[in-house]
Design brief:
The chain is mainly alpha-helical. It has helices at 3-35, 53-75, 79-105, 129-145, 155-182, 188-193, 201-211, 213-231, and strands at residues 114-118, 124-127. The chain has one domain (3-231). The protein has 8 helices and 2 strands. The model is unreliable at 234-246 (pLDDT under 50).
């Protein structure tokens, strides 16, 4: 099988796995929200304590992240491609999670509906559109990194891009957890009962821009490589761009 075909086959396998996982995730969330009457997450007392469901849910969320990372590790051949496939898996899983939840229970009604995105280390709140935007960036980055040769890249440019990205991650986390952070001094009950009223879209847009830095760095590298090939047709390039897939 040609390297390019093999690469896209792996991409598809990872995506199908992530979509199937998304159905499992959305079904579990549907069951839990039905049990505690929280199909609509944005309502008073959004995180009620019922038996041992809370600790079990925290472990389940951590286990989900581990599973998505593991499928990336199995699909890739180098640390870059493994991270890339993990990002693709996470992005596909997150998007299809909301699609399947809509099919199961009719929620979310729109991409602007508030949702509790995550519980660790504090509850993350945001409109559905926010995590889906990050998920799209993750799919794009994972695809680009698995389509770009490592030759020609500079550690300096890549390092700078990731430093910018880390700032974006921190900023996005702050936007998601800002309301919970604001009441943390009032105790655990206040954190569980917090209901945000406004999402900081300007700050989140800045976070998205910073998060996109590694994608831009890879696209610039790919453009320079293609320009070099066009200006020097005699240069022979390995047609295993995706084979390093890394």
């Amino acid at each position: 099988m040609k390297p390019k075909q093999n690469a896209w086959r792996r991409w598809l396998i990872v995506a199908v796995f992530a979509a199937a996982m998304a159905w499992v995730e959305s079904a579990v969330v549907f069951y839990l929200r039905t049990m505690i009457n929280r199909i609509e997450p944005y309502q008073p007392h959004p995180l009620p304590l019922i038996g041992g469901l809370g600790p079990a849910e925290l472990v389940r969320e951590a286990a989900t992240l581990i599973m998505l990372l593991m499928v990336g590790i199995l699909a890739g051949r180098t640390w870059r491609s493994r991270l890339g496939y993990s990002a693709i898996a996470f992005g596909v899983w997150d998007i299809f999670y909301y699609i399947f939840l809509k099919l199961l229970c009719g929620w979310p009604h729109s991409v602007l509906d508030w949702d509790i995105l995550f519980l660790l280390p504090l509850p993350w709140w945001g409109p559905v559109l926010a995590p889906m935007s990050i998920a799209l960036l993750m799919i794009l980055w994972g695809t680009v990194v698995n389509s770009t040769p490592t030759q020609g890249t500079t550690c300096s440019a890549e390092r700078k891009a990731w430093v910018v990205n880390i700032f974006g991650v921190a900023l996005a986390l702050y936007v998601f957890m800002n309301d919970a952070i604001g009441v943390i001094g009032n105790g655990a009950n206040a954190v569980r009962d917090v209901l945000p009223t406004r999402f900081n879209w300007p700050l989140f847009a800045l976070a998205l821009t910073l998060l996109a830095a590694p994608i831009v760095e890879k696209l610039v590298l790919l453009r320079r490589r293609n320009s070099s090939l066009l200006s020097n047709p005699s240069t022979k390039v390995h047609h295993e761009t995706l084979a390093e897939l890394l």
